[in-house]
Write a structure and sequence with these properties.
With 258 residues, the chain is α/β, with parallel strands linked by helices. Helix content is 38%, strand content 22%. The structure holds zinc ion. The site of zinc ion has 3 residues, from loops.
Length: 258
């Protein structure tokens, strides 16, 4: 069991750990932008930098009150050098340092970055759009938490059929699936919401036109996008382990082509 010896909201420590990891695993690092004096980093491995096809995009920390996946992703990358040496990977380890430090969902000025992805007037969104220009990923994953939920759940946007149920199965021994059949007004079946069309209507009806990261990625950069959620009121260690199990299962799917 991995146990944190800090609050989970220490951004300076997170940056220090990622910089060490980047050296150890030969990851290229770039500052996307600086927000309230905090740099927002993107890392990518050599295969991604060289433009190799079939990439994986992993992002987290866009909501500052959802800290488990931020530390889970760091651990997962540290412990999976073989995956990183064979697959192109882009990593956004914390898109909202201001929120993480304050333990707030929103970024500076009360902005929910995960409803801004169609609006490049925000400097971070503009920088990320620029970084993503011309890139395609086999799969993208955005890692989140939900303080209302009582279990794990998964959004899957895919033009290649649904593969999400197996990922939930891999995680449910640590935290069970959400049993509600509706989350945020959306219908779920055994904690999975799968969509392959109707995304524009969903944005208008459910989100008031504000685009989440995953929908932007699905519209422009990938045919297969996951958003995985753990219940943020559960034990932090269990939540971290659950996000790592999710990434392990996803890496296994990518390795075996399922
Ligand atoms: Zn979130």
């Amino acid at each position: 069991m991995s146990v944190l010896n800090h609050s989970g909201h220490d951004y300076a420590l997170l940056v220090e750990r990622w910089q060490s990891l980047a050296v150890e695993h030969s990851l290229h690092s770039q500052v996307l932008c600086t927000t309230e004096n905090h740099p927002v980093f993107v890392f990518e491995n050599e295969a991604s930098k060289a433009g190799q096809s079939g990439g994986l995009y992993i992002s987290t920390g866009i909501h500052g009150d959802e800290c488990a996946p931020v530390w889970a992703l760091l651990d997962w990358v540290a412990e999976n050098p073989s995956f990183l040496s064979t697959h192109p990977v882009v990593i956004l380890p914390c898109l909202n340092p201001v929120g993480l430090i304050a333990n707030h969902r929103e970024a500076a000025h009360g902005i929910d970055l995960n409803r801004q992805f169609n609006d490049p007037s925000h400097p971070l969104i503009a920088a990320l759009h620029h970084f993503l220009q011309g890139r395609r990923f086999d799969c993208t994953v955005t890692l989140h938490e939900d303080y209302d939920s009582t279990g794990i759940y998964l959004y899957e946007l895919s033009l290649r059929g649904s593969h999400g149920d197996a990922l939930l199965t891999a995680c449910e021994s640590t935290i069970p699936r959400e049993t509600a059949t509706e989350v945020d007004g959306n219908p779920f079946t055994r904690a999975l919401l799968f969509r392959d069309y109707g995304v524009d209507r969903f944005i208008e009806e459910q989100l008031g036109g504000g685009w989440p990261e995953s929908i932007y990625l699905f519209q422009h950069h990938s045919d297969h996008c996951y958003t995985f959620e753990t219940p943020s009121e559960f034990d932090l260690t269990r939540r971290i382990i659950t996000h790592r199990l999710f990434l392990d299962a996803l890496a296994c799917q990518i390795r075996t082509g399922n």
